[in-house]
Design a protein that fits this description.
The structure is a homodimer of 255-residue chains.
Chain A lengths: L4 E5 L7 H10 L4 E7 L18 E4 L6 E5 L3 H12 L6 E8 L6 H4 L1 H11 L4 E6 L9 H17 L7 E6 L10 E3 L5 E11 L5 E11 L7 H6 L3 E6 L18
Parallel strand pairs in A: 1-2, 1-5, 2-4, 5-6, 6-7, 8-11
Antiparallel strand pairs in A: 3-4, 7-11, 9-10
Helix pairs in contact in A: 1-5, 2-4
């Protein structure tokens, strides 16, 4: 593919170190268009903005690269890129590099993955990259190397069949300690939630979400297993939420 | 099940006619707890609030029924209900009745379905109900009848196996014209998006999301087919987004 058009977005906001790293890597492969939120949008899931107008503001923070900040959600950014900004097909959408894991069930809360899923829904091959470290000061060396490898192979080989979406998570280890890349399934895990309860300065009670992540899955073919063993996890993902094997078993609801 | 505890939530806000109808129906079956957003939260997807405190305010708008409005998203409401408010297991979570369809791909944008999915993730049988009419003045007669039937059967028979989530959509027809209930799969359909572009009073450009819903799926076993033929659609749903059949085909990404 000569000079592919690569859309870069994220949910941590256009100034986050993770998207800066991803823009740098993507620029090695073709023309880059950046459309990303103007403020952090973590945990926004697949939210879209329907009751308010959206704004796009071209910024010069990435030099000559066309970079727009948007007041909407990550999914809004992708929709605006595809339907307002681009003049030709987007060849690949990359989202991230997220500051924090989006493995397992985190895919449904994640703005990073929802942005990538939105592009995939509209037929564009898409990859979400996440580093398992929440700090904006985290070492991005391995994440850059992984992004370079996966973007390169995705552009040269394409995606098989109807697959359009990859959820890539990168362990928080050095390049030397990473044992490679494993293609795997989403682990069955979840947050065991809790709320910190407090009183605000006006003595009104508030609740603040907190919780522990718990893996219920003993499989060795999961993303969490791969990450725990210092592999990069790649989960081919999609948007059909039908629980197919239970369709017949729910026939008792029919009249 | 004697006096089951039923959690009622939605995304249109605690004062919407749809949730009022659902509260009325649910109250026929057991103890009802309502926790719903204090303002409309449509299209919020699986968003959660992590950077701000949440508030719960008990309201008397549903008489003796315990009803709380919350400043968070639909998913936040479910988490607060489960982890702050309830003293015993929730037997069933019902979300809606949404004003507007959540069939097919709308499940991933929908706050109504995300709230139900959140409860299902935490092990509670959950049902999202949506009426295919956006008007708050829509006739809810069929929707009430369907909710009554499905809640009744779900409480008496339980859900099979690991199934925890149903996406129920109700056609916008009279009770007489409804042909029954069909258990089906999510259709492959999507929004073909567009943006209305305008100038605000200060001559700044804005973009406002609009679009047409397009069904690419010729199957007769889908939710959209059922609804088009005046059936209620019930899609057993889940949260594993792995595209299992493509795991092996992506092995070319491994080192």
């Amino acid at each position: 593919m000569s000079n592919p058009l690569i859309l870069v977005t994220n949910d941590d906001g256009i100034t986050a170190p993770g998207i800066a790293a991803l823009i740098e890597v993507a620029s090695e492969f073709g023309e880059v268009l950046v459309v990303a939120p103007d403020s952090p949008q973590s945990a926004k899931g697949h939210a879209i903005t329907i009751s308010n107008p959206l704004r796009l503001n071209r910024t010069g923070i990435y030099g000559d690269i066309a970079a727009y900040e948007c007041n909407g959600t990550p999914v809004d950014c992708v929709k605006l890129a595809k339907h307002v900004l681009v003049k030709r097909e987007i060849d690949l959408c990359v989202s991230g590099i997220n500051h924090g894991s989006n493995a397992s069930i985190n895919i449904i809360y994640s703005g990073t993955m929802s942005a990538a899923m939105e592009a995939s829904l509209e037929g564009t091959n898409s990859i979400g990259f996440s580093l398992c470290n929440f700090s904006h000061a985290a070492d991005m060396s391995l994440a850059r190397k992984v992004a370079r490898s996966i973007i390169s192979r995705s552009l040269s080989k394409g995606f098989p069949g109807n697959a359009r979406l990859l959820n890539v998570n990168i362990p928080d280890v050095s390049i030397e300690d990473c044992r490679g890349i494993r293609v795997c399934r989403q682990a069955n895990a979840n947050w065991e939630e809790n709320f910190q309860v407090g009183l605000d300065p006006r003595k009104q009670e508030y609740y603040w979400l907190t919780g522990d992540f718990v893996n219920y899955d003993q499989g060795t073919d999961t993303d969490l297993y791969a990450l725990d063993h210092n592999y990069v996890s790649v989960v081919p993902s999609m948007h059909d939420l039908t629980y197919h094997q239970y369709i017949n078993e729910f026939k008792f609801l029919e009249d």
